[in-house]
What we know:
The chain is α+β, with helices and mostly antiparallel strands. It is 22% helix and 35% strand. It has helices at 22-33, 63-66, 103-112, 134-139, 187-197, 223-228, 235-242, 250-257; strands at 10-16, 38-40, 49-56, 71-79, 81-83, 92-95, 115-119, 128-129, 132-133, 149-165, 171-181, 202-212, 215-216, 245-247, 274-277, 283-290, 293-299. The strands form four sheets. Strands 1, 2, 3, 4, 7, 10, 11, 12 and 13 form a nine-stranded mixed β-sheet that branches. A four-stranded mixed β-sheet has the order 14-15-16-17, sandwiched between helices. The protein starts with 9 loop residues before the first strand and ends with a strand.
Amino acid sequence: MSEKHTTPDGLVIVDKPSGFTSHDVVAKMRGIARTRRVGHAGTLDPMATGVLVLGVERATKLLGHLALTEKEYVGTVRLGQNTLTDDAEGEITSSTDASAVDRGALDTAVAKLTGDIMQVPSKVSAIKINGVRSYKRAREGEEFEIPARPVTVSSFAVHDVREAVADDGTPVLDLVVSVVCSSGTYIRALARDLGADLGVGGHLTALRRTRVGPYKLDTARTLDQLQQELTVMPVAEAAAAAFPRWDIDTRRARLLGNGVRLEMPDTYAGAGAVGVYAPDGRFLALVEEHQGKAKSLAVFG
């Protein structure tokens, strides 16, 4: 009799290859983990590489809450050219000599894009406008506007400025940058807006996501590595890394299991999602404080 395959619950931290959509990675993981129950927390553009957080089996219930966490990137911005997609995937729509841009003007423009800002996402993003994906409207040549949205750029640093010449002979500047930002921030929109402010145009030529919330590149595995050995972070450990922890006694654990809304300590007021653990370390639920009581967001134990 063949041994029944069981897929472990948990998160898989993937180092996404360039050229793959986030959905491609999910499809590949369904094959590796041998389950349909796989999802991802926050997309990564096909061109980009780096940390993509996947949930397998019951851990898919964590994904919506993880998607809201802070993200960190390193990338390259080319000043001197605009593209249709605000990144290297799209055709070039304008070229301007960027060699005269000095560091002072650059630093001023970067500072304007740091902090709490309003950002207009790229037209080829997955944002829905009246129920239709923005990129679909753009592909069909439709004229439309995307409203600006509030995002937070905690840090936007330029580490190196390299002079280069584009394929069409335009003198350009390639900036090596790092960005720490809130969920929903488009790095290619930062590149576009930086170029626009400096009057020379700009787009993103490379992007690598190095962190999603507490999950970093050093724990990520390539799809090839995962094919060899599926590395899953157990749900309890994954939740402990991402959310505040609330340990409860056996009596409360039983009440929670019966659907009773527990009184929550004041320390968790306004903390957002909180992980609840039984005395034996089992991860029971993800809750949030609502009028002093624990409102269940997702139940595990």
